[in-house]
Amino acid sequence: MDAPETDRNIKEKGTGGTGGAGSAAPSNFIRAIIAEDMRTGKYGGRLMTRFPPEPNGYLHIGHAKSVCLNFGLAGEFGGVCNFRFDDTNPSKEEVEYVEAIQEDVRWLGFDWSDRLYYASDYFGKLYEYAVELIKAGRAYVCDLTAEQIREYRGTLTAPGRESPYRTRSVEENLDLFERMRRGEFGDGSRVLRAKIDMASGNINLRDPVMYRIKKVHHHRTGDTWCMYPMYDYAHGISDSIEGVTHSLCTMEYEDHRPLYDWFLDVLDIYHPQQIEFARLKLSYTVLSKRKLLKLVNEGHVHGWNDPRMPTLAGMRRRGYTPEAIRNFSERIGVGKRESLVDLALLEYCVREDLNRRAPRVMAVLRPLKVVIDNYPHDQVEYLDAVNNPEDPSAGARKVPFCRELYLEQDDFMENPPKQFFRLTQGREVRLRYAYFIKCVDVVKDEKGTIIELHCTYDPATRGGDAPDGRKVKATLHWVSAPHAVSAEVRLYDTLFRKDDLDEVEEGKDFTEFLNPASLEALPSCRLEPCLGEAKPGARFQFERLGYFCVDTVDSAPGKPVFNRTVTLKDEWAKLRKAGRQ
Ligand code: ATP
Ligand code: MG
């Protein structure tokens, strides 16, 4: 198997480096900061990280990077990692997501024990802090509309203007805020804002909104609240309440950090340390819940767990293993500069893991019937086949061989080019674990399509070697026709035709770059009989074809559907090199 060419696979390295493949814990700048803080006893030897998803979609491979980082570092340094749902926006959040996210993190292999929290647990506390800020003259109720607030905010180059409501008295603010809470005002009619600095060079400090009225049912707090804290107000304080030591987040929150600091300083409460890192970008896909939701809602894919999706649910269904994803997360490293990681690296990690653990079987995806003319009509032999050459403990199995077989259509060519060494008329090849066969005749239908081959076999070559030492140039996989299990097999290509979907020209939508050939369903494949009993989720290597797994959604007892997890080699990297974009 090829070694990963990490430098080629990662277009631009983050400052943290990519880490050496195979090394247990390549260093990164966050690990270094934590190691130093532990050494100096900065938090009294305490380490607490957290993973804070918003339950407004399924987790994707980018979230996996964050999960592995937060849980991984906590585990490594003897600390803890909290699992906290940032559920501050009930109009976009659903219980389905809350459950799916937990399932995904558990599947990735992390355990939060009893450390499951919700930002909504802190709504009461957040409200008290807001009242405190009002009393300190640091927050006010503003009646500007959302549009006016935007307009008053100014731009990156022009300062903002102060709201006419900024000078309201503390008493009036307390009264209005309390009445907002009681539900006296309509959605969007009033907000609570922090009173900071409308001329600040950092737009996040221009009197950001802390609370907005939303008369929406919340999946946990029900109808207790009709106004909800903004993420930027709730997030840093939630970290503080829990006593998080290292709050790891993606780079886009760097400019929000002064705001989080402001809240913590003015309230004079415990101060976690925020450290930003670059989010993962993966080629040929999108990693944004908003975009993924659009793919689902517009029917471009069949749900969040479609095997083409970069979601953990999709990857799990596709056959990816948690070990492969964790390994990938470690290999890509952690840096400050955004880089586009090639999907080939993720596939390499999947292949490397499955190579170790997936039993080998034979399956014919596009069957071509073969009759062995000199083989007895009613005879069946059971031949020995190795389950996994990488793992002797996996043992061997018996594969039936008889007069009628299936071979792969493209393993035969009537008029082959020079480099084609597989079957053609008059040529001898080896059938894996079986015999040498020679093609003696070709049967076609009236349109000229080949529908059947006639071959002879050499009984002296049982097991795959000729006692007289003669050689063949190809070994083909096959299945016995009467014993074969029929199944649908689904082949996948990249979801998009474009590698960097952040670079979509103006006026174009990312969905225009969807790959129309991302799914190819082959309805009448023929598989080795043992696969009839394969359990949903079971993974195999189909010899010469790739790694496949039994679909957990569409398979029925005795009627498995298989997903191709990954090809045996990086085939499409070759295609891409040949100019397909
Ligand atoms: P999206 O843009 O996909 O909606 P998000 O950041 O809004 O992502 P959250 O649910 O808020 O999603 O994310 C939970 C955690 O996962 C956050 O700490 C966030 O920084 C991290 N995260 C999200 N996307 C990525 C990514 N692509 N790479 C690394 N970490 C990510
Ligand atoms: Mg978010």
Description:
The protein is of the alpha/beta class and 581 residues long. Among the domains are: 29-277, Rossmann fold, CATH 3.40.50; 363-477, Ribosomal Protein L25, Chain P, CATH 2.40.240.10. 26% of the residues lie in helices and 22% in strands. The chain contains 14 helices and 27 strands. A seven-stranded mixed β-sheet has the order 12-25-26-27-23-24-13, covered by helices on one side. Strands 21-18-19-20-14-17-22 form a seven-stranded mixed β-sheet, with no helix packed on it. Helix 4 links the parallel strand 2 (80-85) and strand 3. Adenosine-5'-triphosphate (ATP) is lined by residues 52-54, 62-63, 65-66, 249-250, 279-280, 287-289.
The counted number of beta strands is 27
CATH topology of the domain at 29-277: Rossmann fold
CATH H-level superfamily title of the domain at 29-277:
HUPs
CATH architecture of the domain at 29-277: 3-Layer(aba) Sandwich
N- to C-terminal distance: 26 Å
- Read across the widest sheet, the strand sequence of neighbours is 12-25-26-27-23-24-13
* Main beta sheet: 7 strands, mixed
Helical content (DSSP H or I, runs of 4+): 25-40%
Strand content: 15-25%
Pairing-aware structural class of the strands and helices?
alpha/beta
| Discrete helix count | 14
- Average pLDDT works out at 93
Principal-axes geometry comes out as elongated
Can you identify the CATH class of the domain at 29-277?
Alpha Beta
Low-confidence stretches are 1-23
Calculate Rg over CA atoms. Answer: 30 Å
Bound ligand species: adenosine-5'-triphosphate, magnesium ion
